[in-house]
2-oxoglutarate reductase
Amino acid sequence: MSVPQQISETFQKAMNLSGSPNAVSTSPTQSYMSQYVSATQKPTKALKPFSTGDIKILLLENVNQTAISIFQNQGYQVEFYKSSLGEEELIEKIKEVHAIGIRSKTKLTEKILQHARNLVVIGCFCIGTNQVDLEYAAKSGISVFNSPFSNSRSVAELVIAEIITLARQLGDRSIEMHTGTWNKVSAKCWEIRGKTLGIIGYGHIGSQLSVLAEAMGMNVIYYDVQMIMALGNSKQVDTLDDLLQRADFVTLHVPETSDTKNLLSSPQFAAMKDGAYVINASRGTVVDIAALVQAMKSGKIAGAALDVYPQEPAKNGEGYFSNELNDWASELCSLRNVILSPHIGGSTEEAQSAIGVEVATSLTKYINEGNSTAAVNFPEVQLRALDLDQQNSVRVLYIHQNVPGVLKTVNNILSNHNIEKQFSDSRDDVAYLMADISDVDITDIKSLYEQLEQTPYKIATRLLY
Ligand SMILES: NC(=O)C1=CN([C@@H]2O[C@H](COP(=O)(O)OP(=O)(O)OC[C@H]3O[C@@H](n4cnc5c(N)ncnc54)[C@H](O)[C@@H]3O)[C@@H](O)[C@H]2O)C=CC1
Ligand SMILES: O=C(O)C(=O)COP(=O)(O)O
């Protein structure tokens, strides 16, 4: 049975309606909403506005147990995987689910999202959202949420550890001791007190790092494309070059964008102080690793710590640095005073459990109430809770292209009922209207839904009741 038919039949059964299975539209964006309507029973006060047991959530990349518990408490169906999935498997899985939770590895491209016929919301259980085609998602009516700062402290602490580790060549001494070599040296080993830390990207992580570094006696300068208030005694510099020329340690905390690709490459390494150190816990595309290897081989750069790489594997295991994957890998691994970690900047118990709660809560509010506050790609819309004491109330969630005249059409449809409250906002090409209407007879809901579905410029409709 094709999915649209299945939905249509369930719809009719739930609504006690008869008619052709084709009565409900068959396009992907329409069908997922039909499924919501089909699952809906008129709620009593104690019930959610639709049957939460029908909601399917796919969780990848070992998303924290706190999130699983929140979803299970809602009654959602949760499918959980420790690793990411390959493209083909992901395409199969994403067809059915209403929500997907990922971390930094899973790429949700247009190609994959095209198959997501029921998908309402994406949760990035991390800070970065570069792995998702945000624009395509928004235009398809799919809202995306992340956790903007729950792992910032973990990253900042790791970077502090790396600054000291590099300054004291601690990684090398440890490797030597593991093979029984006693190599007690002080040459080119330094205190960090009085040294200058150059932070590129003074956002949540960069600014937190700034405070920690100053507490240990470092001088902090930072470069950011935005003017940002300096914390403590730190100072913003006007140009990247200015920072590179003055810093003993350069650390990157920028997002992955076209502007940050190879932000540090040969010319930037050449501009740095002799014997400076480089730390990258942002994204692998931000540092040109081949150029870094050359700068280290020449002695210009005295040490580097890398937590992120241009390509990262979908799951844990051996053989990552195979030469087929990266032509710089063997040289990088043979260099002295290089710390390599497997993208663990945000991987602490504290961060992961906080992220689990934060993102799962955002997803639940969006699924159950339509609340898109803090979405990263979507208009932010919220209304106070649907008043279930109010007889025959329905919450209308209507996502549409941001063009003139749509609200007039929609409000014309809604005007047969009492509009209790309403809010609408737009972001780029997409707009989102939320309205609570009352005096809706249960038998009118199908017609209301169909009228909204037939409006021009509609992207997706959901009715919660
Ligand atoms: N290694 C890991 O496990 C983790 C890595 N990250 C990465 O760290 C990045 C930064 O995180 P947050 O500090 O939370 O982000 P944020 O958004 O709070 O701050 C980023 C800062 O970079 C600035 N920026 C953007 N483009 C720039 C450019 N071309 N030059 C200079 N500054 C630029 C922005 O203006 C902003 O102030 C994330 O986007 C993510 O990719 C985040 C968490 C964990
Ligand atoms: O939060 C981020 O952006 C990170 O890079 C951390 O990613 P992860 O959750 O470890 O896949």
Observations:
- The pocket of 2-oxo-3-(phosphonooxy)propanoic acid (ligand 2) is lined by residues 103-105, 126-128, 151, 343, 346-347 (CB under 6 Å).
- The chain is about 35% helix and 20% strand.
- The longest strand covers residues 418-427.
